[in-house]
Amino acid sequence: MNRNNYNEPRVPTILTQYRTVDVFNPESFEPSLAEISQALGNINRYNGHTSRPFSVAEHSLNCMLYAEEHHEVRSNHALFYILLHDAAEAYTQDILRPIKPTVSQDLLDAEALILEQLIKLLPFSDEQRADLQDENFLELVRLIDTRAAVTEVQYLFNCHDLSIDAGVEAYPELISWFDYNFLEPLCFEGVYYKECCDYIELLTEENK
Question: Which fold has domain 31-206?
C-alpha cells in the first residue's frame, strides 16, 4: 500500500447510507429527507454530554412545538421551516455554539447552501419562500433556537446556566415525547421523518 496517498489533497466528502456527498459543493447533490431524518435522529447535541441521549431531531421537533405554543406560529410553511432549520447538520455535523465562531466560513456557507437547496426541492410557493427569507421571521427562528438551547441546558446539565450567556429565558419545560424507560431515543428518526412527510402533504394541498 502506498502510504503517501494519505498526504494527497482530497475532496471533503462524507458517506451516507446511500451515497457519497461533497459537502462543500451543495449544488452537486440533492439533500434527502430520508438521509436527514436518519442522521439527525442519531446525532447527539452537545457532543453527547447530556444526562440522557438528546438528538438534533428531538431539538428540531421541540423548536417546532415551541414556535406554535409560545410564539403563535400557525402557518404550515413556517413550522416546516423551523423543523428543518438544522437539517444541513445531517451533512456538516452539529457544531457546538462556543466552537462555531472558529469554524471556517466555507463550512458555514456550505451549511446555509444545503438548507437553501433543500427548501428549493420542497413544495413551498414563491410567496411562502419569500416569507421564509423575511429577516423578522429568521430572527424569530434564531430566538426559538437559542431559547430551546437554554432550556436543554437547564434540564440536561447540572453545572451551568446558559441563560446568563445567551441573554434569553428558558421555555417553561423541556418537552417530553415519551417515557425513556420503554422507547429508544433513536425513534426520533421516524418521528422527524413522519412530520416532514405530513408537512409536504399539507403544503402540496395548500399550493395546488
Answer: Hypothetical protein af1432 (1.10.3210)
